[in-house]
Design brief:
Radius of gyration of chain A: 16 Å
Helix content of chain A: 25-40%
Order of helices and strands of chain A: EHEEEEHEEHEEHEH
Number of helices of chain A: 5
CATH class of chain A: Alpha Beta
Strand order of the largest sheet of chain A: 6-7-5-4-1-9-8-10
Distance between the termini of chain A: 20 Å
Number of strands of chain A: 10
Largest interface: A-B, 38 and 38 residues
Shape of chain A: globular
CATH architecture of chain A: 3-Layer(aba) Sandwich
CATH superfamily of chain A: SPOUT methyltransferase, trefoil knot domain
Oligomer: homodimer
CATH topology of chain A: Alpha/beta knot
Strand content of chain A: 25-35%
């Protein structure tokens, strides 16, 4: 199982955003939607061994955690609006501290990064990290930030996590996810 | 200069599609929009040395070629609707056999794959190709298909092109583009 978590610093935590304005009104939700897509989609199938978690820190009631299970998810297509629509449905559900399923394979709870990194040991994908291609053993769980850097408080939380980079340039989170998964694919497929 | 061309077998060749239904009514235009985004966007900037060309083969007047110049393009954001909106504007322009600029850095002409591959020597990104990481010299120009395989006629046209693969699994075109560009980034940045 590969777990991918992306922090959306301004991503709305209520479901009343418009699917026609994912970048603006929804707080760069477009980026999180593409992260879901690059985490879960193959050309003709899905990555059933991947879970992707979004941490929404925008108004009105952050933090919210939404998890897409590649094994269980249904009704998801690769386009941004499709993931956005399932995120809206997840945010429309009354939520507590335990995960509840909003649509097949999509789960939502109140809570954020502090709780998530207490549950799993994450590596951070960050342009300042060690080259992932050179890692002797690949991590199982990866944490990324959206278009904004981690805050001081978040950096404190992840200060003990190993850091890996996928290349010499700073990339969008969805592109970094594609590169990380390719490294897993290559090692699983004997392509190294 | 890196040139990337993607064939959209069902992508509409008129601009009257809805930005709210890029996958359906517009003929998997969502995939072409993500290909534009993964070709041109870095985290905080654009790939000025990349051109991405879309070949639209859907109704009503195919083939149409639309080219985004990373050096010149303006008004483009990373979300699918943004590229979709510039494609609509390009398709609204009366077109001839020479490229005309529809918005800053976006160009459109009548014509398709046969003409394009006569202009530049393309390599094909295809899961059956040689591992791109192992290429002694990286190609400059890359051709990809959308969610559909190349037709028999297209396969004939590209039969003389070298073929490269980015990994052991069949991936969406935008993900393959991200992986290909990363190989260029790594070699330029001394990361091999």
């Amino acid at each position: 199982m590969i777990r991918i978590a992306v922090v959306g610093h301004r991503a709305q935590s209520s479901g009343d955003f418009s699917l026609n304005d994912l970048p603006g009104g929804a707080g760069r939700m477009d980026l999180l939607c593409r992260a879901v897509s690059s985490s879960l989609f193959l050309s003709h199938g899905m990555r059933r061994d991947v879970e992707v978690t979004l941490i929404l820190l925008g108004p009105p009631e952050p933090p919210v955690t939404i998890m897409f299970s590649g094994e269980k998810v249904r009704y998801l297509n690769p386009d941004e609006r499709s993931a956005g629509s399932l995120i809206r449905k997840a945010l429309a559900l009354p939520r507590g501290t335990a995960f509840r399923e909003s649509t097949r394979g999509v789960f939502v709870r109140q809570g954020g990064l502090e709780r998530l990194i207490a549950e799993y040991p994450f590596a951070v994908l960050d342009e300042a990290g060690e080259d992932l291609r050179k890692a002797a053993v690949l991590p199982e769980n990866y944490l990324l930030s959206d278009h904004l850097d981690f805050t001081g408080e978040e950096r404190e939380l992840v200060s003990g996590c190993p850091k890996f980079s996928v290349g010499p340039l700073a990339l969008h989170a969805d592109h970094a996810i594609t590169l990380m998964l390719n490294e897993h694919d290559r090692r699983s497929g004997g392509w190294t």
